[in-house]
């Protein structure tokens, strides 16, 4: 299956580089390029890509607002790409429904694999910043949790353990080791957790776990 991608990046040289990298993968096709968030939303509506690779700091409309619109309308999954590992936009992008978060200094192969991962519906936060992101979220001074703890009631005890592991930023392989189960079984549990909680990605599950202190 070919993953159809719209690249949203305001710097033309960076955008050209991203298009070149993604175009080198046989299973990825760049179908559109946007120089700002407003154009990214327009292209998502027009082209219905599988994924939008979204910069956060762009003119006319920032990437967080654009992500919220793209996700709310069910137009595509969004992989946020930024220079900053922890800036004021990250949490907003995740809460807006972004399925992944990757740094611009990622290697070409990491970018390609991130696109494939998000397109599969697995969600992703760059390994180099996952635990920093979770730690920052956990210690950040913020208002009371927005989520109602009762949303966890449909989960089995095992599924709660998996959610807790997601909240710690663990990969499927790491969860398998922690909970002493096969990685394929972990993947099944993660899918069930997302389905029962009405979440789009494991990234959103990690944020919810932190909000609820799971």
Automatic annotation (TrEMBL):
Keywords for this protein: DNA-binding, Phosphoprotein, Transcription, Transcription regulation
InterPro entries: CheY-like_superfamily (IPR011006), NreC/VraR/RcsB-like_REC (IPR058245), Sig_transdc_resp-reg_C-effctor (IPR016032), Sig_transdc_resp-reg_receiver (IPR001789), Tscrpt_reg_LuxR_C (IPR000792), WalR-like (IPR039420)
Stored PROSITE patterns: HTH_LUXR_2, RESPONSE_REGULATORY
Matching SUPFAM superfamilies: C-terminal effector domain of the bipartite response regulators, CheY-like
Residue numbers of 4-aspartylphosphate PTMs: 55
GO molecular function, one term: DNA binding
Domain Response regulatory: 4-119
Pfam families according to UniProt: GerE, Response_reg
Annotated HTH luxR-type domain residues: 148-213
Protein name as annotated: DNA-binding response regulator
Organism: Streptomyces hydrogenans
């Amino acid at each position: 299956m070919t993953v159809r991608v719209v690249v949203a990046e305001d710097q033309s040289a960076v955008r050209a580089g991203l298009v070149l990298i993604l175009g080198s993968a046989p299973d990825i096709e760049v179908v559109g390029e946007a120089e700002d968030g407003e154009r990214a939303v327009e292209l998502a509506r027009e082209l219905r890509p599988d994924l939008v690779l979204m910069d956060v700091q762009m003119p006319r409309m920032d990437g967080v607002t654009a992500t919220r619109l793209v996700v709310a309308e069910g137009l595509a999954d969004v992989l946020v790409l930024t220079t900053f590992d922890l800036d004021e936009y990250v949490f907003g992008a995740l809460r807006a429904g972004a399925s992944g978060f990757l740094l611009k200094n990622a290697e070409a192969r990491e970018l390609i694999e991130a696109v494939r991962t998000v397109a599969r519906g697995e969600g992703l936060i760059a390994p180099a910043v996952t635990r920093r992101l979770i730690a920052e979220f956990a210690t950040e001074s913020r208002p009371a949790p927005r989520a109602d703890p009762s949303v966890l009631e449909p989960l089995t005890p095992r599924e709660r353990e998996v959610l807790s592991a997601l909240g710690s930023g663990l990969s499927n392989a790491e969860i398998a080791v922690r909970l002493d189960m096969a990685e394929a079984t972990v993947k099944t549990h993660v899918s069930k957790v997302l389905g029962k909680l009405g979440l789009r990605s494991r990234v959103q599950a990690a944020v919810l776990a932190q909000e609820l202190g799971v």
